[in-house]
Design a protein that fits this description.
Elements lengths: L6 H8 L5 E8 L5 H11 L10 H13 L2 H4 L2 E8 L2 E8 L5 H4 L11 E7 L6 H12 L3 E7 L1 H6 L5 H22 L2 H7 L8 E5 L4 E3 L1 H7 L3 H9 L3 H7 L2 H12 L3 H12 L7 H8 L7 E10 L3 E10 L1 E3 L3 E4 L4 E4 L2 E6 L2 E5 L1 E3 L3 E5 L9 E3 L31 H14 L11
Parallel strand pairs: 1-3, 1-4, 4-5, 5-6
Antiparallel strand pairs: 2-3, 6-7, 8-9, 8-17, 9-16, 10-15, 11-12, 11-17, 13-14, 13-16
Helix pairs in contact: 6-8, 14-15
Bound molecules: guanosine-5'-diphosphate.
Length: 428
């Protein structure tokens, strides 16, 4: 059942980095990233943005899902309890349209853990390899989610033996990518194993999923799942082995918290002096250190204006605080600090290291920027690099000249939101 928390309770959790996980979902196109994100959003511990009434909040969510909120949201924060302890799980959307253009960015820096979705029918494809490699290069631990298992049963009609062989092949190929692209110290630690709970199997479409441990706990076998399909009892699977639980349990148990992760990730992502005050604060995810954050996505909100979302690596960001964007040396004031509840932003006074924050009023910030205090002089986090420059050029003009300004405004918004897009306006 969805669990709700109010802002003060949530901020209490967010004060303790051990209860935070920052993750992403990456995949080859069409393997089920969007469907899976939707199923997490729909069934897991939604955080209630609208405190006026639960029912309304849920209706609102459904409405937004229909409109494809998962593509638009810069971040989705979920609440999940394991052994009675609540965790905030931030599902961060990294910039760059990996799905649409194959132009994979190195913008995985705000996450410490990635769920790689692989279609059980198609197995590991070219983009699975690219995104897994990118994650490993950023020292993000990838784990495997084998999706569309329903199709093995209903379409391919594989025998349990054949299903098992297919699973084993996907896992072997995935571990080969880890061997190939992970740095030596991580290879053995990060290879996925069914027995460890680092491989999830399921159907995002039908919203069920399991790890080895879950099947054992429930006393189920793969045969029981096949049987549920034969008896057209798919809904029962969603109730007994919900996908969100398999995924979020795996995240809580296997993903490093920000304190653990920053120790080995900062030396890779930030090339400043690790013995300096800032360096030590970054390595330790220290909320008492100087404030440093990295922007992962910028959205133009029709009401709030430019919203810059990113990860706080050290210190505290506060409403009203004066800050500096390092790359452009722009100094400005934060109008409002916000946290995410589900996909919604909620204003707060301040937010601490390890968390995902939304800033209003920092309109010059772009994806990849490092933000700190005006008087702190440090190198920015490594710039996000794109594998290729834009290759397609399109000229557009409005059908009716009176729409020209509308078109220009819209093009400007698109350019702010999409770091891959370059817009030039020919006023003649
Ligand atoms: P994305 O490109 O990775 O975001 O993929 P989508 O989530 O858009 O899914 C691509 C297609 O696969 C859609 O038609 C989905 O309905 C379908 N799909 C996703 N997950 C499953 C699944 O578990 N089983 C089946 N049968 N279809 C799925």
């Amino acid at each position: 059942m969805p669990k709700y928390k109010q802002v003060p309770e949530l901020l209490k959790i967010m004060r303790n980095p051990e209860q935070i996980r920052n993750i992403g979902i990456i995949a080859h196109i069409d393997h089920g990233k969007t469907t899976m994100t939707d199923s997490l959003l729909a069934s897991s511990g939604l955080l209630k943005a609208d405190l006026a009434g639960e029912a309304r909040a849920l209706d609102y969510m459904e409405e937004e899902q229909k409109r494809g909120i998962t593509i638009k949201a810069a971040n989705i924060s979920l609440l999940h309890e394991v052994d009675g302890v609540p965790y905030v799980i931030n599902l961060i959307d990294t910039p760059g349209h990996v799905d649409f253009s194959g132009k994979v960015t190195r913008a995985l820096r705000a996450i410490d853990f990635a769920i790689v979705v692989v279609d059980a029918v198609e197995e590991i494809m070219a983009q699975t390899e690219t995104v897994t490699k990118q994650a490993l290069q950023e020292r993000v631990r990838p784990v495997l989610y084998i999706n569309k298992v329903d199709r093995l049963i209903t379409e391919l009609k594989l025998t349990p033996q054949e299903v098992q062989e297919k699973f084993m092949r996907i896992i072997r190929d995935f571990n080969e990518l880890i061997e190939l692209y992970a740095e030596p110290e991580f290879v053995d630690k990060w290879k996925v194993k069914v027995q460890d709970g680092t491989v999830i199997f399921g159907s995002a479409k039908h919203r069920w999923g399991f790890t080895f441990q879950i099947l054992q706990e429930k006393g189920l076998t793969f045969g029981d799942i096949t049987k549920a399909y034969e008896q057209n009892n798919i809904k029962a699977l969603e109730e007994t082995i919900p996908l969100y639980k398999a995924v979020l349990d795996c995240v809580v148990r296997k993903a490093p918290n920000p304190i653990e992760a920053q120790k080995y990730r900062i030396p890779r992502l930030w090339h400043g002096d690790l013995d300096s005050e800032v360096g030590k604060a970054l390595l330790n995810c220290d909320a008492n250190g100087p404030p440093v954050m990295v922007v992962t996505k910028v959205i133009v909100d029709p009401h709030a204006g430019i919203v810059a979302t990113g990860r706080i690596f050290s210190g505290v960001f506060r409403t009203g605080q004066r800050i500096k964007i390092i790359r452009s040396n722009v100094k400005t004031n934060i109008q409002q600090v916000g946290i995410y509840m589900g996909p919604h932003r909620v204003p707060v006074d301040e937010l601490y290291a390890g968390n995902i924050v939304a800033l209003l009023g920092v309109s010059e910030a772009r994806a990849g920027d490092t933000i700190t205090l005006p008087d702190i002089d440090i190198p920015p986090f490594e710039q996000i690099k794109y594998i290729s420059e834009p290759v397609v050029t399109v000229a557009v003009e409005p059908k009716r000249t009176q729409d020209l300004q509308k078109l220009i405004n819209q093009m400007k918004i698109m350019e702010i939101e999409d770091p891959n897009l370059k817009v030039t306006i020919n006023t003649e």
